[in-house]
Amino acid sequence: MSMQTSFAPDTETLVTGAPLSRKRRQLRKAGESYGFLAPTLILLFVLMIVPIVMVIGYSFQDEAVMGSSSGLVGLENYIAVLSDAGFWKATGNTFFFTVVSVAAHLILGLAFAMLLNSPLIGAVPRAIFRALYVLPWLFTAAVIAVLWRMLLAPNGIINFLLSTDVEWLASPQLALGTVTFINIWAGYPFFMVSLLAGLQGIPNELNEAATVDGANAPQRFWNVTIPQLRPIIVSLVLLDLIWTSQQFALIWMTTGGGPIDVTEVLSTFTYKLAFAEYDFSLAATSAVLVLLMSMVLAVFYVRHQKARD
């Protein structure tokens, strides 16, 4: 007696009349994946890749305006920008503004994160402190700029409390430090929230084992807490370096790069080349140089993320 085994017909066989090969199935799955990604890839291409290519092209042209140019000039624009004392003054201001801001973000963010993670603070005070500390992160750059311009005005609350009449944003000696302080105030909550999540992910057993071994609080901090937070700290610092070095709105809306050029950074320097002097070729060149600097940091960030994974 012969035994017969029935098999459920394959859906793809019913549709095509023949089973698809493994390679064709893989191609179909890949096509579906790229189909879902296509809208995002098209937007990235149109809104990012095309403008970048256009700006790079403008940097090699003379008097480039809205796609028209009087001809190619090779590297003359790059030589002109790199020979400009204003570019290097803006680079120095950007370096100071970025390094001080990122360092302060890290220190304040870690300090407040450890405070909020401390068992010495009750649940209700911890919730109140979290709301207060994260408040600056909720404001846009425009709100922060207007708020601090009012506070730091000659007749503002800061001068009233200090009994002075200092021009915080108009003084050549104080303006750069003032906008750096404002940026620190606006940016530390990002570090605080991220590091607080990292602290809460550290197993208690590690600190308990260190305590049993005789480690005191500073030793536990340097040998347990910091090594556990190192991947998060490196990622945050690299991201913040990229974001802060390209800060524009806050500086433009508080000082406009002035007084004179004491708060001029690369973003405002490039903007003025384009829309104050109408030299779009040099502005494109400056933008390309900023892009190259940012790409160096981006490469380190990507390599760190790959090593972390």
How would you portray this structure in words?
The protein is mainly α and 309 residues long. It has two domains: 12-58, no CATH class; 76-308, Orthogonal Bundle (MetI-like fold), CATH 1.10.3720.10. The protein is 72% helix and 0% strand. It has 13 helices and no strands. Helix 4 (85-116) runs antiparallel to helix 10 (217-245). The longest helix is centred in the N-terminal third of the chain and has 37 residues, at 22-58. It starts with 10 loop residues before the first helix and ends with a helix. The relative contact order is 0.11. Residues 1-18 have low confidence and may be disordered.
Query: What is the quaternary state of this protein?
Result: single chain
Helix content range: over 70%
Report the CATH topology name of the largest domain. MetI-like fold
Q: How are helices and strands ordered from N to C?
A: HHHHHHHHHHHHH
Straight-line N-to-C gap: 59 Å
The CATH architecture of the largest domain would be: Orthogonal Bundle
Q: Show unreliable segments.
A: 1-18
The best one-word shape is: globular
- CATH class of the largest domain reads Mainly Alpha
Radius of gyration: 28 Å
Largest sheet: none
The tally of structural domains comes to 2
Keywords: Cell membrane, Membrane, Transmembrane, Transmembrane helix, Transport
Pfam families: BPD_transp_1
GO biological process, one term: transmembrane transport
Protein name: Sugar ABC transporter permease
